[in-house]
């Protein structure tokens, strides 16, 4: 065998670790229904088949929410589809999952959650440097008129951007 063709090569045996942030699922409706006060990044306790299913992108956080359970933060109703090639070791799709945060962060979050009207909502589920993470928002529910006001403001900003774009395009075409 020639140089570099052996089985003991360290170059071919190592696997590259993921870098960056790969988003799996987002909860777009959460930002519409809630006023976000603060965001946190938390890890998740997952089974092996859950990780494989997440890597394939089979997850939904639309109905998910977080609550305290015996001094810990738990994520409820996060749907991770069963892994297609799993066996008897497959996971339950909507099982309760523990959130991984520092004790000091958990205590601060729990203090804020005890205030009336506050809730903990997941905004997105993603891989960060190869680890599954969830972005949690400490949020307060919006009223109907707040939602309408936010929609009107977004539409107005979009119309302003269109008008500016038309104006700039008109200016550049006259300069030629």
UniProtKB/TrEMBL annotation:
- Principal localization reads cytoplasm
Keyword Transport annotated: no
Q: Give a GO cellular-component term.
A: cytosol
Instruction: Give the subcellular location.
Output: Cytoplasm
Fetch the InterPro entries from UniProt: SmpB, SsrA-bd_prot, SsrA-bd_prot_CS
Q: Which GO terms describe its molecular function?
A: RNA binding
Is RNA-binding set as a keyword in this record?
yes
Question: What GO biological process terms does the UniProt entry carry, in alphabetical order?
Answer: trans-translation; trans-translation-dependent protein tagging
Q: Which CDD domains match?
A: SmpB
Q: Which UniProt keywords apply?
A: Cytoplasm, RNA-binding
The superkingdom of the source organism is Bacteria
Pfam families membership:
SmpB (PF01668)
Q: What's this protein's function?
A: Required for rescue of stalled ribosomes mediated by trans-translation. Binds to transfer-messenger RNA (tmRNA), required for stable association of tmRNA with ribosomes. tmRNA and SmpB together mimic tRNA shape, replacing the anticodon stem-loop with SmpB. tmRNA is encoded by the ssrA gene; the 2 termini fold to resemble tRNA(Ala) and it encodes a 'tag peptide', a short internal open reading frame. During trans-translation Ala-aminoacylated tmRNA acts like a tRNA, entering the A-site of stalled ribosomes, displacing the stalled mRNA.
Give the family this protein belongs to, as stated in its UniProt record.
Answer: Belongs to the SmpB family.
Name used for this protein in its record: SsrA-binding protein
Give the lineage.
Answer: Bacteria, Bacillati, Actinomycetota, Actinomycetes, Micromonosporales
Give the gene name.
smpB_2
